Amino acid sequence: MTKKNPEPMTDPKKTKKSRKRAKQKCYKLFRERVIAKNRQYYENRKNRAIVVVNEKKEKGCSICGEKRFPCLQFHHVNPKEKKYTIGYAIERLGMEKLNKEISKCVILCANCHFIEHSKERTPNAKIMLS
Ligand SMILES: [Zn+2]
């Protein structure tokens, strides 16, 4: 003899209302956990951004001495050592990896940064820059 409609897996003592309440409670706990996790992520990211801002403000461009914050950029001295961009490290990586990446960089203003990279790309950059 086979059952066409097997019994539901739920406890018959529990009413529809009590199951709904249990689901709501579970959802609320889950939601609180997600909110707490997000809050922690944004707090950590903010702290990493503060480190980067302070680094730029303190040092300025290492070639021309430019101090205006919006035009300062991180330049990897040895491109082969570059693992991440600093922006990526702020977004996704921990403070330790960010500091390690910053240690491979010098701070340059946008103009000096472009000039540095043009030296790498263009073989006759010396002619263009003189
Ligand atoms: Zn500069």
Task: Describe this structure as you would to a colleague.
This protein is mainly alpha-helical and about 130 residues long. It has one domain (about 15-130). Helices cover about 60% and strands about 10% of the residues. The chain contains five helices and two strands. It has helices at about 15-60, 85-90, 95-100, 110-120, 125-130; strands at about 70-75, 105-110. The protein has a two-stranded antiparallel sheet with strand order 1-2. The longest helix is centred in the first third of the chain and has 44 residues, at about 15-60. The N and C termini lie far apart (about 95 Å). About 10% of the residues are buried. The mean pLDDT is about 90. Bound molecules: zinc ion (ZN). Zinc ion (ZN) binds near residues 63, 66 and 112. Zinc ion binds near residues 61, 63, 64, 66 and 111.
What is the total tally of β strands?
2
| Ends apart, CA distance between termini | 95 Å
Average pLDDT, all residues = 88
Q: How much helix is in the residues?
A: 55-70%
What integer value in Å does the Rg equal?
28 Å
Structural class: mainly alpha
- Helix count from the secondary structure assignment: 5
Kindly report the spatial arrangement of strands forming the biggest sheet. 1-2
Profile the largest sheet: 2 strands, antiparallel
Q: In one word, what is the shape?
A: elongated
What is the helix/strand order?
A: HEHHEHH
List keywords for this structure.
130 residues; mainly alpha; two-stranded antiparallel ribbon; 5 helices; binds zinc ion
Topology:
Layout: H1 16-59, E1 72-76, H2 86-92, H3 95-102, E2 105-109, H4 110-121, H5 125-129
Antiparallel strand pairs: 1-2
Bound molecules: zinc ion.
